[in-house]
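Consider what follows.

. . .
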Amino acid sequence: MRRLVKQGFPGAGGTGRRAVSRGRIGAGSAGNGWVLAVLLVERWLASGARVDVLLEQLTAEVAPAERARAQQLFFGVVRWRGRIEAALAGLMARPPRTKVRAVLLVAGFELIAQRTKARAAGAAPDDGPAALVVHHAVEEAKSVCSPKEAGLVNAVARKMAGRLAVAAAEEADEFSHPEWLVARWRRLFGNEATRELMLWNLTPAPVMARWRAEEPPPEFLLPARWEGFYELPSGHGEDLRRLVQAGALYVQDPSTRLAIDLLAPRAGETILDACAAPGGKSLFMADRMRTGRIVALDLPAEDDGADPRIRRLQENLSRAPAGVEIALMPADLRRTSPRTLEEFNLPGSYDAVIVDAPCSNTGVMRHRVDVKWRLEEGDFAKHAAQQFHLLRAGARLVADGGRLVYSTCSIDAEENDGVVQRFLREVPGWQLEQGVQAFPWLDGHDGVAAFLLRRK
């Protein structure tokens, strides 16, 4: 495998990601997942950082079980923040310290989870388990807050428990989504589909993976309804880690197959993955091709190669079949021309180009639990404008008669059909051959869109 890394490539753009404190989380609390969750929530509230970035800041000394507990509680708070905040509204005369609010949010999620579990078991929720949740929150609060603040947690959490036991006045609060986003979805999909989508987003996702090895998969893997994909069961942690490290399994949602199926990569082709990080689609294509050449292009690392996106991209590309030559090109697609590629001894045109564009992530909110709180109403138009320019830039690199696949993990028409139709209007010489849109509540996996275009 050939790897090309030129961090100082002229014209490379930044990612626009928000800077966040890199201090480690968990020193002295490594044995308590509940407290770790409070610290994660506190930093999330204070910084607005992405949840995956914050999880990477947990110290290495945290035991796996406590790390899993912290993540489960942290993600639960982020999913249900709207519902919990609605229940907390008006219960305190003045805003508490961020850490105290984090304690209340973690307690609120545990109250929701307790009642959800009772309903799933067919039992009528009662006040006994709720009182235990409140008591536990107060005891844990004593280790991270002052005695007076622990008393406040006791008083407020008891009232919050009563409010969480009944439905919220507004559906957006009940299902914990921003009101403006719910209104947008209702216009696009209707009331029932919007309700199903919100419920989908609030449900923790099973871990899915693609089997890559030639030998049959072990029997403990649970076959999914999509060929080659499996659900990873609990209780086999060491076996699964071994399979992932060996490259036999790649953790990946089945929705990724749609763009690859449209592209239909063939042996011996030269293909450009124009927005490649973290590399899952490049690896998927390489597995289909077995021989050929893939150039994986993405924005360069921000700080001398320490960017986790680039690190994961490099790790994933290292697992490609030996017959596929891989080149990693750090660059901004919008500023990349055939000539600039040729300057690095790379092809200036390709049999196929895939542009898996940055988007609103509205189709993957089940996995990216904080997206709904980071989105703003104007983001859809901004994304669509950027996506159009990325698609047009990718089109410049397609050979005559070649294929261009545009894909997103959005379910919003403005970012999908809207971008493709603008491209067809403004860029001559292309035709749309096929398009597919997957919706989570209908297809049972992440929501994505993919479109196959061909140069005439």
The chain is about 45% helix and 15% strand. The radius of gyration is 24 Å. The first strand starts at residue 208 and ends at 211. Residues 64-88 form the longest helix (25 residues).
